[in-house]
Amino acid sequence: MKVRKLQEPRGWAWYVGPAIIKPLLLATTKQRWVDGEKLPAVGGFVVAMNHLSHVDPLTAAHLLYDHGRLPRYLAKAGLFSNKVLGYFLRAAGQIPVERATSNAAGAYVAAVQAVRDGNCVVVYPEGTITRDPDGWPMVGKSGAARIALETGCPVYPVGQWGAQELLPAYSKRPHLMPRTSIAMKVGDPVDLSDLVDQPRSMEVVNEATERIMAAITGLVEDIRGAEAPATRYDMRISGDPYRPGAPRSSAEPDGLGDPGGTEGSERRGGQS
Fold it and tell me: 126 Cβ partners below 8 Å, 6+ apart?
């Protein structure tokens, strides 16, 4: 159900996409949007949320579209290599990012410009689908923090739960019936005001990232009605269970996030 009318201009892709995807989501999911009215109706900002499933960009787009905003994602560059999909993604204003390459800097510049142009940029700061055994947010990467510090824009944390039931991590078989309950809760903007004018040291970026991850984790606790572990999962320490034998030190390179990085930290007090 539309909570707020769309006010920003949209090209053909944002007429075609919702007309196809939204009916599918309505048929297979039950939505519970909490405090979505906190999202700004106009102006540039970052949405930072936890990552549970490959379907997350669709369910997040549903949340934002229902609240009158069009999301811009940092999408894996490989998706753009398909002519049809690439044409659609570019028309929808999505931003290609080549992770772990020097070209990733171009995605950061594009994301900063998108925010300055008044757009909503969505970042999954964990950098990949969570590997925490119980689905809790992992350590964060610096993309959302760096965009916010560069632009001074607000970062709205979002905690979500349920998408992993619709499409489990790295599964190609969605569970379409019965309908999956998808819950998303929007928090207040993360206070980074004391950090914006400071030099962009690793300490400052880590602190901003930790505040964002703490806010996301708190929202996930609220919608799950449970308490997260005191220490967030870190693939550099615990490895990647989806890639047995992968070197722990290179389990997931630092980048913008998913596909959008900084060093992670413990939940209640930074570890850089």
Answer: 50, 51, 137, 138, 139, 140, 141, 257, 258
Indicate the DSSP class of residue 108.
H
Q: Would you say the C-alpha torsion 140, 144, 148, 154 has a positive or negative sign?
A: negative
User: pLDDT (tens digit, 9 = 90+) per residue, 221-244?
Assistant: 999 999 999 999 998 888 888 776
Which amino acid belongs to residue 201?
Answer: S
Strands 155-161 and 180-186: antiparallel
Q: In what order do the strands lie in the sheet with 45-49?
A: 29-34, 180-186, 155-161, 45-49, 120-123, 71-76, 95-97
Residue 270: CB atoms within 10 Å: 17
- Say which range, 85-89, 108-112, 136-140, 248-252, has the weakest mean pLDDT: 248-252
pTM: 0.86
CB 239 within 8 A of CB 115: no
| pLDDT range class, residue 55, cuts 50, 70, 90 | very high
Tell me how crowded residue 81 is: count the other CB atoms within 10 A of its CB. Answer: 10
- CA separation for the pair 159, 74 (Å, rounded): 19
Strand residue runs (E) in the chain: 29-34, 45-49, 71-76, 95-97, 120-123, 155-161, 180-186
Residues in the chain: 272
